[in-house]
User: Fold this.
Amino acid sequence: MLNEIAQEIGLSPEEIAQRMEFLEFTAVDVDRLSNIHGHMTEVHLEDIFSELFYAHLTAFPELSAFIPDEAAVDRLKRIQARYFMRLTAGDYGKEYVLDRLRVGMTHQRIGLEPRWYTGAYRKYLSFLLFSVYAHMGHDEGRFLATYDALLKVVFFDMELALDTYFHGDRQKLLHMANHDALTGLPNRTLLSDRLERALLQARRDGGQVALLFIDLDRFKNINDALGHPVGDEVITVVARRLVGALRQEDTVARLGGDEFVAVLTGVEREETIALVAGKLLKSLESPIEIQANEFYISASIGIAVCPGDGDTQDVLMKHADLALYRAKQEGRNTFRFYQRGMNELLVSRLNLETRVRRALEKGELILHYQPQVDLASGRIVAVEGLLRWVSEGVAIPPLAFIPLIEETGLILPIGEWVLETACRQAVAWHDAGISGLKMAVNLSMRQLWSRDFFDTVWRILAQTGCRPEWLELEITESVLMDNPNEAVLMLRRLADLGVTMAIDDFGTGYSSLAYLKRFPVHALKVDRTFVQNVSSDADDASIVRAVIALAHSLDLKVIGEGIEDAAQLAFLSGLGCDLGQGYYFATPLPAEEMTQMLQHLPSLVRGFDIRNCRVRWIGERAAKCMVDRSACPFARSPGELCEHPLVDQIVRI
Ligand code: C2E
Ligand code: MG
Ligand code: MG
Assistant:
């Protein structure tokens, strides 16, 4: 280390010789110094000096602050005495120089400023002034020559000490330019440097280099919900864990935000790289504790390997990024190697992103509405607004683009548009005399955790004139359980506003019963994957039975999703499920069709009960009848086009 510093400062033997020459420090001077050295040793001048010096030094609070305790003073005095004795010992070779650098480095590391340091030399010179004069028998000629030699060696010494200061500062600047301030990890600049070196080396000896793009999953939630200071702490812990999971010779850098890159060299097999990627993911598994809170974090990793996936930095980075995108898409908390063909995926992704962005401006986004039926009375008591993007005449279902717009943040303006449109529609229906109808709106995770979400809901209700009790927010189970403590707080605020909430896709996540009790929600929506098989799969049937029992014991309503046939309906009704939704009653319909259904169906069918009507609205402006003639006056035979007058009206819209 000291050798390296000496090398960096440029302290070669030639340089030392030149310095001495410049100071006119000659062999004669060395002799003169050796002469007083003998005298000093005899009378233990160094001890007297260090006593004096420490008495002087400890009078300054800035300096005594560096001394931990009494015992340290004695130790420091001895070191100091030895240090000054070496000035006159007559040996100024390499060892001497390194020793000076070591002391300078120590002072620099503890933060002792140079002025205290140079002050010590002054004290030394003043102290010797008199004793050397006395030792020379007050012979002015000898005294002046010796004292002159003393000045030369002190300057030689001081230069070395100051060199370490300048060197340290340069090192600090260099470090700052190349490292991330928060985590101390290499930054993009240093990464690029190291990667370039690794690629060169690989090219020379035919080895492989793996580039791992690491991105934390859903980190934005932590930042948005808990603020940046907590986010920063999480990043710091993550950085430490990633470093801990790698070998010393590997590089892990932070690119900014929640993005890290690891560079592995000398990895010849894909399995080894996969092993390391797995290790990195595993290192993040245990919870992170911050201010007595526990956070769970995971990451996704995209991997590109040189030379197979590219041999330049740009190409490798691009390919690792594509692989990362795939890892995110395929469930997160996982890693993916780059594969050819991912390029097209990126192009279509970019394309889709710009197209959705424009869709909002061009009015290509619309809401469809699907009724929720009270299973006891057969009346439509609520509708769920479901987003559709009509691109060039084709309705694209939300699952094809919502995950993407969540990732890009576009979900925020789009979600706001959905909320506002649904609220306006709710008001329009109430104004048209359809009373007591609730409007259910789906929320994405990003919306719920965005800082101003509560204000947005409040503003939209005020602007549209929608009463809070007309609005129901559907939040999926996994979103709530990702961050249950924060969710409780947010849901409470919304509940205080008068808005009701339902947990969507219930059964697909892992709800903790303790939290379920604390969430101020009013309903659980049993996921349709369970409803689908209630009549054929005993396990699904028991799950649905258990969910309904659980919900009722917690005083929650149950909504069965995806009811497609009479058997499913009968099963759910039999268990006391409160509400039902599904193609059996109606598919999601455009607003005008939903309006027709809400307004005319009850007046056309006396004692309207959608369960008996059994008109299957399939949203293609036609409807099929699901029952035989005896159950419905308009029916022909099951499965045929219905003769219900309303169907006709709808077809003609
Ligand atoms: P979800 O909230 O669980 O909505 C129910 C989904 O089930 C809808 O799919 C609906 O069309 C479909 N469905 C209803 N009845 C049946 C049935 O009998 N059989 C079958 N097979 N499917 C049925 P959709 O419209 O494709 O929406 C899918 C998901 O996209 C929604 O699931 C919701 O999570 C999300 N989504 C829809 N609109 C929005 C929105 O405006 N904002 C957000 N954030 N998410 C939305
Ligand atoms: Mg929903
Ligand atoms: Mg659902």
